[in-house]
């Protein structure tokens, strides 16, 4: 007889493993199916985020930033370092160790919480059955009253640049370079492209980013996006907008890329090429035919606001459903679904999900942009404050960037917050909490912030919404 569980989760990424642990904590007999084979030939947990995404990329971003600081910026602080060098192989080994520690940690959490880890590829074959195929091709069936599909996503490949083993790679391959290529091409000026481009630019690569869109970071407030583009260009990233890649050719150890822009057909040669044009849901083969779970034309599982599919008892979360492909969004959906299965009332505020680009300076945002508000006919008032006027930013040698607060002109409710600057990914939590509690810009303005901190820029931006900023010339008349 097949094993029987209260909950079966397919996928042990940040959505799946969190859902499984939460369900087990709530007293539900839970299993989690995972097929990811790690570098040591064994199944590992953590999905894309821990293995080839969020965590390893941040390890490389942090290491490469410290290298640049030591090489170019320490002198401003009075620190003499001499000839600074980067051991790329050692940097990569550290990154791999961090990944190993974290993926092993999930296995420990499963054991501590009583989650049954099942190795293999999971496929929903009925509303209460999952077929598991192990690495040797053997199949078995696991039964569960509830099924949570958390299969994640994979990089999008494009016909003009088919991947090769070493020269043309996706984001995963870009995390494995053992030396900085002299000429590096990046297709896509999104979050992943800018982060990986930054890493290798800091380590000496001449980086050219080809972006098909005419606008830079259209999901970010236009003022913040414009400043970010300026700062990245200053760092050496050659970002070419409106550049649509049409073909590529491998010539020996080089890649010749053809693209079109406003000037016509262009050609450029690289030593390595990274393709970062987005990700697509990994649902093919995960949902069996005849189960009844609906997919849209792009392969996303159709769900309601609480991640229920069209089949009772079957849920889907994370990258394989609507919404931003973010690890923390997947995790919160996992918690919500586990709570619902356990009989609790749970929901998620999709209007207050933060996003971060971990370049330097970081870019972070939550809620509406000014252009969003305008498109929806919402009248807003805004306040900005530059880090150049922040005492802590001066002390940190990190005066680039600004904080911006967007509030409803009539109600003063905070509709969005956008930041480019040091630690923006940490500072944006203030905007998330403000929006979660329905705060007004005045609420933030009346809050006492520690001095001196980078967070004071958010305080001043909130004050500036009504022209009350203290540490810069006010452009609005006080009320």
UniProtKB/TrEMBL annotation:
Domain of life, per lineage: Bacteria
Assigned GO CC terms: cytoplasm
PANTHER family: DIHYDROLIPOYL DEHYDROGENASE, DISULFIDE OXIDOREDUCTASE
Organism: Halomonas beimenensis
Molecular function, one GO term: dihydrolipoyl dehydrogenase (NADH) activity
Keyword vocabulary terms for this entry: Cytoplasm, Disulfide bond, FAD, Flavoprotein, NAD, Nucleotide-binding, Oxidoreductase, Redox-active center
Residues forming the catalytic site: 451 (proton acceptor)
Miscellaneous remark of the record: The active site is a redox-active disulfide bond.
Keyword Electron transport: no
Protein name in UniProt: Dihydrolipoyl dehydrogenase
Reaction(s) catalysed (UniProt annotation): N(6)-[(R)-dihydrolipoyl]-L-lysyl-[protein] + NAD(+) = N(6)-[(R)-lipoyl]-L-lysyl-[protein] + NADH + H(+)
Positions of NAD(+) binding: 188-195, 211, 278
Native organism taxonomy: Bacteria, Pseudomonadati, Pseudomonadota, Gammaproteobacteria, Oceanospirillales
Textual note on the cofactor: Binds 1 FAD per subunit.
